[in-house]
Amino acid sequence: MAPHLDEDADSAATGLMGEGYLSLQHDESLELPFCIDAGSSGEGTLRSSSRKRQQGPYLPTFDVHKRCKGSIHLAFLSHACFVTASLFYVRLSFVSLAWIRFANSNSVPREILDADDDEAWDDWADSAQNGSAITEMGDEYDEQFKMLTVLGSTFFVLVGALDWMRYCDGLNIFMILAGAAGVASGLSDTSRGEAGWDCLSVHLYLLEAFNLMKREHDYEGHSCLRPGAVCFLVGSVLDILGSYLGLAKFEGLAAYFMDIVACLLWLACSLIDLVAEVYFMEWKGRVFCY
After folding, report:
1. Angle at which helices 131-167 and 173-187 pack, to 10 degrees?
2. What are phi and psi of 208, to 5 degrees?
3. Considering only CA atoms, which of 264, 266, 267, 244 is closest in space to residue 254?
4. CA–CA–CA angle 188, 253, 242 (5° rounding)
5. Angle between helices 173-187 and 191-214 (to 10 degrees)
6. How far is it, in rounded angstroms, from Cα 131 to Cα 125?
7. Average of pLDDT values for 112-118?
8. 241: burial class by Cβ within 10 Å (0-12, 13-18, 19+)?
9. Which 3-state string (H, E, C) describes 198-228?
10. Alpha-carbon span 92 to 145, nearest angstrom
11. Helix, strand, or coil (residue 230)
12. What is the mean pLDDT of residues 194-207?
């Protein structure tokens, strides 16, 4: 009975699909959209093939990490923010040095410099020579200090966020938090709050420096980014020492010169990274990928 059913099924298939269907049906490497099912009545019926491949719609694949990792625009936007932030910090360090020299030359007491209320400044200005002019200079310095600190720290937050997008490295959170602490320091209304946030910020920058040092930057024997990471590490250490001297109420100019050197090292790091990125892109046709 089975041979007759197979012959009937082949006949049905031939009538429906043509002579070429029978040769395709016996090819096991092909998946047919339907096949012939012989029922008990001996008549062939069509049914869906159990081997039919189930497929979803063809959707375009988009790997966000790969696109961000190899993005030239994100790379150079990060470098631009790094250079800009470093320039703001360099400017801030020279402004602070100029102010403390001006204050020392006019014999402004340390307790007045650290005073948070205007009343203390006004009482001192009434009894001091050129007190009003010195007070105005102090107010101008405070405005510049806040503006430069907030701007520089904000750009460092952007650097951390862009690098996090590029490398998908969770340790880039240190740069973001360090910049956020710097913003809080600049917006603080008290000298104690300003010093506390600044101390936290410089320690977070040091952690980011260790993160940069542990990365493998070498490619084919050329170490382009290592000098920049070393500059950032040394600058972070000097920043911490300067913060400790400030908390200890050290009255010398050494802390201000130390701050200038630290900011110049950070600027050197940003420029080294930028030049190395340009060189690598011209050589390899792409940006650094860690």
Report:
1. 160
2. -65, -35
3. 244
4. 50
5. 160
6. 4
7. 78
8. middle
9. HHHHHHHHHHHHHHHHHCCCCECCECCCHHH
10. 7
11. helix
12. 93
pLDDT tens per residue across span 44-78: 444 444 444 444 444 444 455 555 555 677 888 99
Beta-carbon-side half-sphere exposure of residue 252 (alpha carbons within 13 Å): 7
Residue entry with tokens 């460092």: 156
Contact indicator for 162, 287 with CB cutoff of 8 Å: no
Rounded CA Rg of the chain: 35
How far is it, in rounded angstroms, from Cα 153 to Cα 181? 8
Query: Per DSSP, what are the bridge partners of residue 45?
Result: 37
Q: Can you say whether residue 220 is alpha, beta or left, with left for phi > 0 and alpha for psi between -120 and 50 degrees?
A: left
Q: What are the DSSP E strand ranges found in the chain?
A: 34-38, 44-48
pLDDT: is 145 or 165 the higher one?
145
Distance of CA 156 to the CA centre of its chain: 9
Backbone angles phi, psi at 34, to 5 degrees: -155, 165
How many angstroms from the chain centroid is the CA of residue 30?
Answer: 51
State pTM to two decimals.
0.71
Residue of 159, 112, 160, 164 lying closest to 138 (CA atoms)? 112
Phi and psi for 250 in degrees, rounded to 5?
-70, 130
- Local confidence band at 25 (pLDDT 50, 70, 90 cut-offs): very low
Rounded to 5°, angle at Cα 246 from 245 and 252 = 70
Tell me which long-range contacts 7-13 makes (C-beta under 8 A, separation of at least 24): 8/38, 8/42, 8/43, 8/44, 9/36, 9/37, 9/38, 9/44, 10/36, 11/44, 12/36, 12/43, 12/44, 13/44
HSE-up of residue 216 (Cα within 13 Å, Cβ side): 4
C-alpha span between 79 and 156 (Å, rounded): 10
